[in-house]
Amino acid sequence: MSSQSSPVRTWSLRVLGAAIMVVLVLLSWVVLRRLDDHQQQPTPSIPPDPLPVASAPPDPGVEPPAVHVLPADAPPRPPEDRPQGQLTGWSRSMSDELNIPEAALEAYGYAASVLEVTEPTCGLTWTVLAGIGAVESGHGRYGGADLDETGRPSTPIRGMPLDGREGIKTIHDTDDGVLDGDEVYDRAVGPLQFIPTTWNRWAVDADADGAADPDDIDDAALAAGNYLCDSAGDLREPQQYWKALLEYNASEEYGQQVLNHADYYGGRSHRLIGAERSRPLGND
User: Fold this and answer.
1) Assuming Cys at both sites, which of 13, 52, 63, 77 could form a disulfide with 81, CB separation 3.0 to 4.6 Å?
2) Where is the composition biased (Basic and acidic residues) (predicted)?
3) Domain count of the chain?
4) Which residue, 101, 99, 97, is CA-closest to 84?
5) Is residue 69 part of a domain?
């Protein structure tokens, strides 16, 4: 065989080389484009760990706008018409930066608004409920769950069996497993982790969907608010705050974690709204 390349072979190699160069250029463009797109994607703010230690009461945060509070005997309505949806604009303005789902913020804000009417001397703010939601279940996202737009986790959230193991009290089944799925021991249920006996006392249908459900963060937030307000006086007073939180969970460490989260959310919400108001017009 001749050691010299034929013209056809030389031409073929040149075409192949050019094709390879084109492919490499295209691949480089795709990679750079994806990197650029990734860099432009908003990243939710993650609270610092550990959070600054706060003192009671926590920052009340940016107050939700006025809403129409449904009466307790309001007729059932579709889930998409939940009254908490009145706070969509308010929640959307803070959701990403606070790393709280919009539906959860709406639930906390609406519950606080309801309690301003029903328990005006309680002084409960949405930030306290948000602090509880953060510590109990990451606002309904524990175990990889997602919170849908109606306030329900994609998978049920259940606590450990209250079976008396070290550090856990013993509570034998009280609900035949109806709420928690456990017919031997009780378990905490839902985004705000109600045990069945407590839920049965404070159950409320906060979104008028026809059912009081601890897995629904709308219902759980208002039930938690009612429970806290009944447990103490004015939660804006440090002693009353602690009295209520220790009634909800008899752990000072727990109460401090809730307080730290609540104060962070409150302070951050003021800075967010302040930054939005100071942004130059036309600078989107």
Assistant:
1) 77
2) 163-175
3) 2
4) 101
5) no
Tokens of 183: 């017919």
pLDDT digits (tens, 9 = 90+) for 41-64: 333 456 667 788 999 999 999 999
Same domain membership, residue 97 and residue 25: no
At what angle are helices 217-231 and 126-137 packed, to 10 degrees?
Answer: 120
Quote the domain boundaries for residue 5.
1-41
Q: Which amino acid is at 81?
A: D
Closest by CA position to 103, among listed 62, 140, 65: 140
Number of neighbours of residue 243 by Cβ within 10 angstroms: 16
> Side-chain half-sphere of 177: how many Cα atoms within 13 Å?
4
Would you tell me how many other CB atoms lie within 10 Å of the CB of residue 64? 21
Would the pTM of this model clear 0.85, i.e. be above it?
A: no
- DSSP 3-state of 172: strand
Q: Which residues contact 37 (CB under 8 A, 6 or more apart)?
A: none
Q: Where are the alpha helices (DSSP H) in 205-250?
A: 217-231, 238-248
The pair of three-digit structure tokens given for residue 40, joined into one six-digit string = 């432009």
Would 54 be classed as within a structural domain?
no
Maximal CA-CA distance, the chain: 101
The pair of structure tokens assigned to 66 is 């006025």
Q: Cα(184)–Cα(15) distance, rounded to whole angstroms?
A: 74
